[in-house]
């Protein structure tokens, strides 16, 4: 028999997964819309003898919002509650990169070595011990992306404060639909044991795990940082552990809340990754 607590955990997990699935649906719609725009532009260019349509392909206006049932549109800046004081500092000068890759990088890490993924954010440093032995493909990908500056100047675009407690980052577009151009496989999915009657396991506070579209092997660059024990399906690759200092930073961010008022929106805190590095020790 499913208890009330198990049912609550199941509902929270299902909500999180629905949001991930809706995100990829929006991404597909965005791509289709952009294809139509591109086709129309070709016709117009031909009609005017190859005149350049300045600004027609400005990607800033073409990105869809993160697929969240209660979050506001990413096409307009989130409005922060007047009573909420931003606990973070201003971002360092710079803009997210736009580089994409067709295939994931070749394996180059030492699976027996220790690696640290450090996020220098506007809210403080978040050091993360990566598990290269249990999630080598994921760690290898993050080592590659960090070296390319892929995460630098990117905004953490999602905060959940009800049922599931995570900060989601890793999308240069800030929309919830961006990635590096390639996907990687799932790893280490049995790390937290078997699922309970609601189909979930507990991702403990201090976990870093991969976000995905709700389908297997669809991880890219987006990841989430768990700041409080959270019930989730064992479908999201856990690949490291956040240290105590990093958890303090996450608690500060979570304390400022999110902008939807529904427990799932953009962080009220200005959370920007100024610099991300992976170091071997």
Automatic annotation (TrEMBL):
PPIase cyclophilin-type domain boundaries: 124-278
Compositional bias per record (Basic residues), positions renumbered to this chain: 1-10
InterPro entries named among the record's database cross-references: Cyclophilin-like_dom_sf (IPR029000), Cyclophilin-type_PPIase_dom (IPR002130), Cyclophilin_A-like (IPR044666)
TM ranges: 36-57
PROSITE patterns: CSA_PPIASE_2
Keyword Cell membrane: no
Protein name per its UniProtKB record: Peptidylprolyl isomerase
Organism, scientific name: Streptomyces polygonati
